[in-house]
Amino acid sequence: MHTAPDSPGARLSAVFAQVRAELEVREEFPEPVLAEALAAVASPVLPERDATVLELVTIDPPGSMDLDQALHITRATDADGPGAAYRLRYAIADVPAYVAPGGAVDAEVRLRGQTIYCPDIRVPLHPTVISEEAASLLPGQTCPAFVWDVLLGPDGERVAAQVSRAMVRSARRYTYAEVQELVDAGTAEETLLLLREVGRLRVQRESERGGASLPMPEQEVHEHEGGYAVRLRPLLEAEDWNAQISLLTGMVAAEIMLEGGVGILRTMPQADEGAVRRFRRQARALGVPWPEGMAYR
How far is 131 from 137, CA to CA, in rounded Å? Predict the structure, then answer.
């Protein structure tokens, strides 16, 4: 969209740029970083294992190019072992395959910390030749990934899990809205139907262990008539299912690290009684009914 120099949109863009400058946001990648990224993409260290037979699918917002997670879910068979009801394969893009420890890209990534989503632009963590091309789990592209193989019981709890590097090839890409529409219509492929089944089981397990997820509306910034408009979009249930799979993988990783006695874990304690009492007073002040005996979650 073209905006006149004195339009509200142009003035806002100037303010956004000023904020990034004040916060020292690193918009451009230095030439040595880009050169190293191109060299890494040309000759990465790839895993020997081939898992391209898996019919992986990705689920992301519309237009996303940095596809870093893909999944495949089936019902477990007798060959998978006793107690298993579902088998989840979850691929996470192997970005480290293209980042040499101690190299220019590694140093730049440590300075950036994370991808920064601004109202007008997105400032990526890695050079896009890595994050949106070589390492992205784009449909039809063969690339390295960390593949989690998780067996779940009929209640959605972990039965067994392992992880290894492998070459994968995503078969299809979906948006959250497409997944929701296909599942609601009953025309979705098996992986998506089982995603709903497993996702709902994991929501129940989260509640039982004292967790709570708040379905806050998504804030979206859109260019609008020479300026910007903020819209609130209610979250789809499909987004919660997908988030539960990601959370499950993180928990499995934590369990493996605990078993191995290595790694750093981030945990949250149970809410103490004082916090719960304060929360109950706040609910009462807002006129929200909270029957005695109902857990805060």
Answer: 9
Residue with tokens 């009953």: 186
Neighbouring CB atoms inside 10 A of 286's CB total 7
Q: Are 150 and 248 in contact (CB under 8 A)?
A: yes
pLDDT, average across residues 258-271: 87
For 54, the 3-state DSSP assignment is: coil
Share of the chain above pLDDT 90, in %: 77
Domain assignment present for residue 281? The answer is yes
| Cα 173 from Cα 139, distance rounded (Å) | 6
Evaluate whether residue 88 is within a structural domain: no
Whole-angstrom distance, CA of residue 296 vs CA of residue 202: 18
The total number of structural domains in the chain stands at: 1
Any residues with CB less than 8 A from the CB of 126 and at least 6 apart, and which? 37, 95, 99, 105, 109, 135
CB-based contact 165:94 (threshold 8 Å): yes
Q: Is residue 210 part of a domain?
A: no
Tell me the whole-structure pTM to 2 decimals.
0.87
Q: CB–CB of 159/89 below 8 Å? A: no
Bridge pairing between strands 69-75 and 86-93 = antiparallel
Q: How far is CA 256 from the centre of its chain?
A: 20
Q: Is 66 among the domain residues? A: no
Average pLDDT over residues 138-167: 97
Using the 8-state DSSP alphabet, how is residue 199 labeled? H
How many angstroms separate the Cα of 251 from the Cα of each of 23, 140, 171, 248, 292?
Answer: 34, 29, 26, 5, 31
Q: Identify the H or E element spanning 159.
A: strand 158-175
CA angle 150, 154, 157 (to 5 degrees): 50
Amino acid 196 reads R
> Nearest to residue 95, comparing CAs of 57, 146, 61?
146
Return the structure tokens found at 280.
């109950």
Residue closest to 172 by CA, chosen among 47, 54, 14, 15: 54
